[in-house]
Design a protein that fits this description.
Elements: E1 4-5, E2 12-13, H1 36-48, H2 50-61, H3 66-109
Helix pairs in contact: 1-2, 1-3, 2-3
This protein binds zinc ion.
C-alpha cells in the first residue's frame, strides 16, 4: 500500500482519505460515482453524444481507483466503436448513393 503525503502539511495520509486528518486539507475532489446508474448515464452519453463520451471517460480515468478507470476505458472504447460504426455507415451510404446516381446516369445515356 502506497503512502500519500498531504500537500499542505506533508503528513502521511491514507490513499482513500478525502481530507488530511492533521490539517483538514482537501486531498482530492470527490470521486465520480461508479454506481450502476452512473455507469449507465456515462455509456448512454457515449452512445448518443460521441465526443462527450471521451471527455467523461478521461474524467473517470483520472480517478485513482480501478473501477473508475474501467468505466473510463469502457466509455472511450464505446465512443470509438460508435464513431467507427457511424463512419462506416456514412461511407456505405455515400457508396450506395454514388452507385444509384451512376446507374441513373447510365439509364439516361441509354
Ligand atoms: Zn495536512
Amino acid at each position: 500500500m502506497e503512502g500519500l503525503l498531504c500537500p499542505a502539511c506533508h503528513v502521511t495520509v491514507r490513499p482513500e482519505d478525502y481530507f488530511c486528518y492533521n490539517c483538514g486539507q482537501n486531498l482530492r475532489p470527490k470521486p465520480l460515482s461508479t454506481s450502476f446508474s452512473s455507469q449507465l448515464v456515462v455509456y448512454l452519453k457515449s452512445l448518443l453524444l460521441p465526443p462527450w463520451g471521451v471527455i467523461l471517460g478521461m474524467r473517470y480515468l483520472r480517478q485513482p481507483d480501478r473501477r473508475s478507470k474501467l468505466v473510463g476505458w469502457a466509455a472511450i472504447i464505446l465512443t470509438v466503436v460508435i464513431l467507427v460504426v457511424v463512419i462506416k455507415l456514412t461511407m456505405n451510404m455515400i457508396t450506395l448513393v454514388n452507385d444509384q446516381v451512376g446507374q441513373q446516369l447510365q439509364n439516361y445515356s441509354l
